[in-house]
Specification:
The protein has 404 residues and is an alpha/beta fold. Bound molecules: protoporphyrin IX containing FE (HEM). Protoporphyrin IX containing FE (HEM) binds next to α4, α5, α6 and α7. Protoporphyrin IX containing FE binds next to α4, α5, α6 and α7.
């Protein structure tokens, strides 16, 4: 238990630290990686370069500090982060390292303003926050152990299939011949690759894009960026160098953006671009196991060239008794028009959403680029959908904890 005095110090200094947050965490990462370069095998270097991870960690530590005497408020957010940590094999022995360098960075950036009393209070608070993560992650590791998939496991690419000009699917089976475990539609896996010319291992998360309980897992990867800089390194490598017969490593499925299968409420699956991947898993699962549940599948893409899974969506939708599908293309090509490949043109704006989403007492899942998500979530609220019925997932580190 933290003392009243410690709580007071932490709460009153949290805003000061938040102000200098990015400075502190940037310094923290630099010094931590200098002392522990092996951690570069875990962290996403592209996120580091963009400063996204710095913001995510800073926001979380300061939010946690603000709620230090009622950490249960943060539990849903902690669980979501813990899923990501577990899928990346972040272990309890890593926490003291992060703590040590975070405190050193606070001290260095704040200078004399960081008195011993303040540093001691933050050290104590970090210990409490870290323990919350460690306990939750421990349960997740136990579960993974019971499912006989504790760490990274080799999977063989048994089929590679182009889904659009920029998205390619990889069908994966365990290299050791073991069975493919069940997962919840919406979950992702971490893929770890050793790329020639790269000093450290590269990790990325990809949603599972096929229904569970099959003899394979499927990921569908968008090629990011024309010239593979840090940003598109993994996706380009997968597209260009990983083929049928090759092996890649995965950790067990993770994530709490999952289909609520117990509910019979109508389901709206709304995606933009490659955000379609978790929706494919949810759609196919529902089509196979709950064909009477009303499902509306809405997908927005730039044009028919880049749009993936058109036929697969149509095939799944036919299996459902009450279903609608809307393909919205921002800039349809002449070929898209000729082949009637879309139901509406332009953006998924509030008017379109209002026309399509006639049932507001339904469950909505949203996934796609940040701007698409922000607009869609805002528009759903405008048409009267309750916050608790909207589920969403950003690809990449959570930008702001308050958004959860
Ligand atoms: C991701 C917070 C400890 C490694 C994240 C994210 C947050 C976060 C908010 C983004 C989650 C998302 O992507 O949705 C924290 C907090 C910690 C902590 C508050 C301490 C209490 C650690 C430790 C390690 C670690 C000890 C390992 C040394 C990572 C990695 C990611 C991540 C590798 C994935 C993002 C990337 O690779 O850039 N963490 N974390 N974290 N965390 Fe932590």
């Amino acid at each position: 238990m933290l003392s009243e005095q410690t709580i007071k110090i932490v709460k009153s200094t949290a805003p000061i630290l938040a102000d200098r947050g990015v400075e502190i965490t940037t310094h923290f990462y630099k010094t931590m990686f200098e002392a522990h370069p092996e951690l570069l095998n875990i962290f996403n270097h592209a996120n580091q370069k963009q400063g996204r991870q710095q913001t995510a960690l800073a926001n979380t530590v300061y939010a946690a500090a603000t709620y230090i005497d009622q950490l249960e408020v943060l539990l849903p957010a902690v669980k979501q982060i813990a899923h990501k940590h577990r899928s990346l094999m972040v272990k309890k022995e890593h926490y003291p390292i992060v703590g040590e360098f975070l405190l050193k960075a606070i001290k260095e950036v704040l200078g004399e303003a960081a008195t011993d009393e303040i540093i001691d209070a933050w050290a104590e608070a970090y210990g409490v926050i870290a323990q919350v993560f460690i306990d939750i992650e421990n349960e997740m590791y136990e579960e993974a152990k019971n499912n006989k998939w504790e760490g990274f496991k080799a999977f063989k690419v048994v089929k590679k299939q182009k889904e659009s000009s920029i998205i390619t699917s990889f069908y994966l089976q365990p290299a050791d011949g073991s069975t493919v475990p069940a997962f919840s539609p919406g979950q992702y896996v971490t893929v770890r690759l050793s790329v020639e010319g790269e000093e450290y291992l590269l990790n990325r998360q990809y949603s599972l894009s096929d229904a569970p309980n099959q003899s394979h897992l499927r990921i569908s990867v968008k090629r990011e960026g024309e010239n593979p800089t840090t940003l598109g390194k993994v996706s380009n490598y997968l597209h260009d160098h990983i083929g049928e017969g090759d092996e890649i490593e995965l950790t067990a499925p993770a994530g709490d953006f999952v289909l609520d299968e117990a509910s019979d409420k109508p389901l709206y699956l709304i995606s933009g671009g490659v955000g379609i991947t978790p929706m494919m898993s949810m759609l196919k699962r529902t089509a196979d196991h709950k064909a009477n549940r009303p499902v509306t599948f809405i997908h927005a893409a730039k044009n028919g060239e880049v749009q993936a899974f058109r036929t697969e969506v149509e095939e799944a939708v036919i299996k459902l008794t009450y279903s609608q599908k809307y393909f919205i293309l921002e800039n349809p090509t002449a070929e898209d028009r000729e082949n009637h490949r879309f139901d509406a043109e332009g953006y998924l704006d509030s008017q379109k959403l209002k026309d399509i989403a006639t049932e507001t007492d339904a469950i909505f899942y949203v996934c796609g680029p940040v701007a698409f998500m922000k607009n869609t979530i805002g528009n759903l609220a405008t048409i009267g959908v309750k916050e608790e019925n909207i589920h969403f997932e950003f690809f990449g580190p959570s930008i702001n904890l308050k958004e959860y």
